Every structure is written in C-alpha cells, then in structure tokens.
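DEPOSITED CHAIN:
***
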Amino acid sequence: MSGGREGADAKRRRLAAELRRLRDLSGMSGRELSRRIGISQSKVSRIESGATLPTLPEVTAWSEAVDAPAETREWLVATTEGVFTEVRTWRTSLRNKPHLQGEVRAREAGARLSCSFQPSVVPGLLQTAEYSRRVFSLFREVPYTEEEIAAAVAGRLDRQLILYEEGKRFEFLITEAALRWRPGPARLLAAQLDRVASLSTLENVRVGLIPYRAQAVTFVSHGFVIYGGPDDDAPFVTVEAIHAKLTVNDPEDVELYRNRWSLLQQMAIFGDEARAFLTDLRAEVQAGE
C-alpha cells in the first residue's frame, strides 16, 4: 500500500474500500466476519460503506480474521490512526473560501449535544456581532479582508439560530480569563457579558463559568468542543491550535476529553450564581471604563 499526504476524507474512503476488498478476497461473508470480530453485521456494512469509522482494535481484528499480509496490516493501522486524528492547517481549510462557519454549522446540526470549553475567548455561539467582528479581525494566520470579516460575522450569527432549535442541547464552560478578555472598548465587553447572561436562560443552554477563585482540579491549555453525547454513534472533538484545527475521532481519545470536561465542571458555577457573577463583572468593567 502507498502512503501520501491525502486528506482524512480520502483516507477514510480508502480504508473502507481496503477492508471491503480484503473481506471479498478472503471469501468471507459479512455475517461470518462480524461473528469473528465481535461486532454486528450492520456495523460491518457501515464500515465498508465509509459511514462508520472502525476502531483500531476492530481494524486489527479484521485484518487477522481475513489473514491480511503484514505490509497491509501496517498500512491499515497507520491509516486508521491518521483518520482518527485529522489535522487541517488554517491555510488549507480557508483556501478558496472566506470563512468556515458553514462547516461548523454542519457539525452543530449533526449533534444533539455540543459541549464547548473556552479558556481565552467567549465561544462563537454566544458572541455578539461586534465582539465577533473584533475576533475575526485579530486572526493573523490567514488575514481576513474587510469583506471576508463581514461574511464570517454573518455566518457566525446565522449559526447562532441553532440555539433556539428544539432537540438540540448546548453546554459551555468559560473561564473568567475568557470573560475578561477585551477585544475592544469596555462597552463592547459589557454588551458581550449581557449576551452570555441572556442566552444562559434558554432551557437547552447551560453555561458554566470558571472563576479565578475556583480551586483547580485540572487544567486545559486550549479550547475544545465535544460533539455528541456518550450514547451517540460517532462522537468527536475539535481542537483549535494556532496553526491548525484538529478533529479527534478515536473513542478512547474522545473519552479523555469527556473526563477533562467532567473535572472542569467541578470548578464551575452555574445558573443564578453564574448570572450574578456576570452582573458583578459587568459592573466592574463599566466602572473601569
């Protein structure tokens, strides 16, 4: 099998095709393979169609069951690992498109539950238009033109309509440092704090704030979003680094983020206590204007 710098989607398709090819060569039915590796026949079909990603243990068991050659087994393992953690640079992601809000909206639309942690900035779904405009104007990796900033802000505001959809749940954990970060004048931040407080009253939105005074039980140096709950078929995590966006699909790695989310929740305040905190912080921001 050959390597190459192909995208995660292409790797996923090649992985599915190769697993199907190996089963066909072995003369084994999908039913027999499912029995041997301990998964359902329907999952075998979903894996071969590319609809479901197999786990690394499943790929290993699959290759053993069909007696794949050693070189092929190595390729299967490397390809599976590559698909489970996708890295896309901002330069590549933004090539020939003004912004990525449509992609993010599609991820949010496909998940019944989204859990977002932000240590340095208010999450996009909670941002006011002016706050969002300032955030995009500070993006240096692939600088935006004024027209592109306007399009990106419009896309972000369009995304926010999903907050009002029945059947969708959103949880946010935001550090005090993120709430205090000010990309503009004090009035801009005051309006942003009001926006967070207002959205926190929605029945399907839960906002937790992590104040400086909270006793630390863990730490996270970067923001992340978990899409899908524990009972969903294929939950995943996105992580935004300076140079690229990472998408984590491996179930074990997703569980690491769930565990970290649980610890972060222990440090947070919610409900009326959180809204009182925002009110006090807003007063402090205005007093220092």
Q: What stands out?
A: The CA atoms of residues 218 and 260 lie 7 Å apart. Residues 94-287 form a domain with the Endonuclease; Chain A fold (CATH 3.30.870).
